[in-house]
Amino acid sequence: MKLGPVILTALICLSFVASAQKTPQRTLEAKRTNSTIKIDGLIKDSGWQDAAVMTNFVYFRPTTGAREEYANRTVAYMMYSDEGIYFGGFCYERTKDSIATQLTGTRDGFGTNDYIGIIFDTYNDNLNGFEYFVTPLGEQWDAKMNPPSIDGEMEDFSWNGVWKSGAVITDSGWSFEMFIPFSAIRFGKKEVQDWGFNVTRRRRKTEQQNTWNPIDPNINGFLTQEGLWKGISDIKPPMRLQFSPYFSVYANHFPANQQGFSNWTSRVNGGLDVKYGINQAFTLDATLIPDFGQVQSDNQVLNLTPFEVKYNEYRNFFTEGTELFSKGNLFYSRRIGGSPLHMYDFAVDSNEAVIKNPTESKLINATKISGRTQNGFGIGFLNAVTRAQYATIENTATKQERQALTDPLTNYNVFVLDKTMKYNSSVSLVNTNVWRSGKDYDANVTAALFELNDKKNTYNLGGKLATSNRFGLLPDGSTETGFSHELHFSKTSGQFNFSLSQERTDAKFTSDDMGYFTNNNFLNHYLWVHYTWNKPKNWYNRINVNFNSNISILSKKIEPVNEKYQSAGININANAQTKKLWFFGAFMGYNFLQNDFYEPRQQGWYFKRGAQVVTEAWVESNESKKYSFFIDALFRKSINFYNQFGFDIAVGQEYRVNNKLSFSNQLNLLPRFNNVGYTYISGSSNINFARRKVNTIENILSTTYSFSNKMGITFRARHYLSTVDNKEFFILQKNGELTANAGYLPAANQNANFFNIDMVYTWQFAPGSFLNVVWKNATQYYTNEVERSYFKNFRNTISSDNNNNLSIKVIYFLDYLSVRKQLHGNKTEHK
Predict the structure, then answer these.
(1) Where's the DUF5916 domain (predicted)?
(2) What does the alpha-carbon distance between residue 331 and residue 324 come to, in Å, rounded to a whole number?
């Protein structure tokens, strides 16, 4: 008997019992004003009498559906003019001490703050939103809410609009005002419009969160439960033309621990970012002569896996407003300006030395166009060009230099079409393309995606079909073509939810040229089951329980291996929030025997791993307190497999001295005992493995001091240490097992240290305009001799050659309409 259909039927039947009912939609009539409001947070201007009023907010956390207490009530006002939207109100409190405040000194710095925010769904499609938040100390957040994926709705906090806000704390709470110009939001050009919207307020000391239009957390989607702002008339999308010229100065000292001016270098940069509204729907962003030298340092690690390390993107051009480009998970922006294609693929004679080999390709320029029409048709286009890179090689005898091409002139392109439909559904087409000059191969990936929801927003069916082509890759100059697909069916609303999915790629598919891609040739199946109790009772506010299972096999056997099975596992985890606002959680999992086709680093080989038991527990204290902490401890133990076991221990803590100064520290300990894995031995023709002790320590210290809600200093220091101490060597056999290799080679040991400091002073001296002063220090220390003392490693690291970099950058925001208005006003005064 086949159990799959029976289990699926049972899940669907059970889910009908647990389905949630959608709450009625509240409506607010749009009110227009001709008054000018001074945005100072005081709500004193008489013009506020023109506004529509919102009261009777409803909690969705922790007690869903409860009315807010009178002493903590919220009163909000909203109206619009020819120029933009006014939003203001009062957040009442019993005392000032009930208000949670913390200055972060940076834009979109969350901290431990109360806040209130408004969310607009200008196309009224329940999929796309613009969010604007303000704290009691007047700090701003904003974000774009993007169409939900299988993982839920996504908020893009890297998106920044330019708008005004103010807030004032009083004895009875705090008041706020916002003015959102129409240039800071996207909408259609209908004569009369209805927008979806909602207002939300959060009180951090009690973790109460309410909204004007009620929200049920059992229903899929925040925007699907929005209110309606009705009858907005005669508003016109303004001309959107904005410039952000910048000027930067860099001074670099390497090695910084050596005296003398010869170790100093400097450079001066200047460039321009442009944002142009092509029409009411689409925006062009361009960066000319980009400068990303002030972005946060990467968290470098010693990589013992067969896969590339995926680093975070910190360059604002590639993080802001790129939600369309993330569809299908085919775009990894770090590919643009990343490591050269042939960084080490050039010959060097015995009498030559490499004196320069750039680790990144230089970005010449980048442009993106994105937006969505009134009928839900979205377009995203991104294009970037990197210049050719060369390594410089010197003849050690004659000192004559030559160059070797490591990366050709390359053009990167992403193109996305996305159409939203009824019931929060959508279909998309994504294409990525990499074109390289010269003889190197070109690459293209095309994918079609769909997400379909039923009328009640309870069930979802989605998937992806993709094909990849590498032109000129094969020895005869022909194209290698591969295919991939993914399909999932989910229940997304109610206390009980589940998801079944299948993912398959053939042995030729890859999206690695433009995306992050680890491996192909697999057929995977997943089951996720979730149940939540989110009605406070006894000791808890909410409890979540998840069950997961997965199995992976090869899509096609790899000769001469007569195996297709790769791995399988099951786990269950639970987490809860208590009435005291503490979080607890636990995890238990079992990974079955595994055939690892990637650890050997050669096709046609595999490594048999033992089964493994994993347990984990964590606790997180109430983060609204002056001192808060979390502890997460995970233990993994292999069964009858070289006595292999290990821990993952993370300890974090934060202390807020006051609302301006805070300290935090995170310590990660990852000891691995009798770890068995691939090891490189120079000159060996075998595939070598080792039983080893791997010890990794990561220590991060951060400090923030805010002078005001527009000025602050952040300091971040990170030390990473990882040692590999080999105890026993093996040679991998064709049957996936190991045979002992008597030779002990301590040279295969590793001792790697990375140390970075990022200290940033930022001052927003005008809306959208910033002065940034950044000090960065980077040091690496590597040896084949294992040093077990953490403090000796730290001393050796900071005494090694380190690179100090100091930079000053000024970014000035210019809005065409504001400049024209000022110039026109000056001319009028002169007359």
Answers:
(1) 237-822
(2) 10
pTM: predicted TM-score of the whole model, two decimal places: 0.90
Surface-to-core class of residue 204, CB atoms within 10 Å of its CB (0-12 exposed, 13-18 middle, 19+ buried):
buried
Closest CA to 448 of 433, 467, 461: 467
Q: What is the DSSP letter of 44?
A: -
Q: How far is CA 395 from the centre of its chain?
A: 45
What percent of the chain is helix, strand and coil (3-state, nearest 5)? 10, 55, 40
Query: Based on C-alpha coordinates, what's the Rg of the chain?
Result: 29
Kindly give, in sequence order, each residue whose CB lies less than 8 Å from that of residue 307, ignoring residues fewer than 6 positions away: 518, 519, 598
What is the DSSP secondary structure assignment for residue 26, as one 8-state letter?
Answer: P
As a whole number of angstroms, the distance between CA 276 and CA 350 comes to 54
Residue 714: C-alpha distances to residues 478, 772, 784, 827 (Å): 52, 11, 35, 43
Strand-pairing partners, residue 624, are none
Supply the DSSP symbol for 537.
B
The single-letter code of the amino acid at 428 is S
Q: Please give the Cα distance from 194 to 229 (Å, whole number).
A: 6
In Å, how far from its chain's centre is CA 352?
Answer: 43
- Please choose, from the candidates 191, 173, 209, the residue with its C-alpha nearest in 3D space to the C-alpha of residue 96: 173
Give 369's strand partners: 284, 381
Q: Using an 8 Å Cβ cutoff, are 668 and 698 in contact?
A: yes
Instruction: Kindly list the domain boundaries of the chain, sorted by start residue.
Output: 3-233
**199-236 pLDDT tens trace:** 999 999 999 999 999 999 988 888 989 999 999 999 98
The answer to whether the CB of 717 falls within 8 A of the CB of 759 is no
Judge contact between 14 and 7, C-beta under 8 A.
no
CB under 8 Å to 1, separation ≥6 — which residues? none
Structure tokens at 595: 């055939």
Task: Count the alpha carbons within 13 Å of 140 in the hemisphere toward its beta carbon.
Answer: 24
DSSP state of 825: H
Strand locations in 278-321, DSSP E?
282-288
- In 387-519, which ranges are E strands? 389-395, 401-407, 410-421, 425-436, 442-453, 459-471, 480-491, 496-505
Higher pLDDT, residue 128 or 490: 490
The strand pairing partners of 89, in sequence order, are 76, 176
| Cβ–Cβ under 8 Å, residues 333 and 316 | no
> DSSP E strands: which ranges in 592-687?
594-596, 607-609, 612-620, 627-638, 645-656, 661-678
Q: How far apart are CA 705 and CA 104, in angstroms?
A: 7
- Average per-residue pLDDT in the chain? 91
Among candidates 375, 18, 28, 373, which has minimal Cα distance to 220? 18
Express each pLDDT in 143-183 by its tens digit.
988 765 544 446 888 888 889 999 999 999 999 999 999 98
Residue 366 phi/psi, 5-degree rounding, is -150, 145
Helix (H) or strand (E) holding 538: none
Specify whether the CB–CB gap between 343 and 253 falls below 8 A. no
Q: What are phi and psi of 565, to 5 degrees?
A: -65, 135
Q: pLDDT per residue over 58-109, tens digit each?
A: 999 999 999 999 999 999 999 999 999 999 999 999 999 999 999 987 777 7
How far from 50 is each of 28, 31, 36, 191, 366, CA to CA, in Å?
Answer: 13, 7, 11, 21, 45
CA dihedral sign, ordered 150, 577, 614, 753:
positive
The full length of the chain comes to 831
CATH class assigned to 3-233: mainly beta
What does the block give as tokens for 800?
């090694």
Q: Measured between alpha carbons, how far is 453 from 22 in angstroms, rounded to an integer?
A: 15
CA nearest to 216, candidates 495, 435, 624: 495
SS3 call for 829? helix
> Distance (Å, rounded) from C-alpha 115 to C-alpha 108?
12
Q: Which amino acid is at 109?
A: G
User: Quick one: how far is CA 746 from the chain centroid?
Assistant: 39
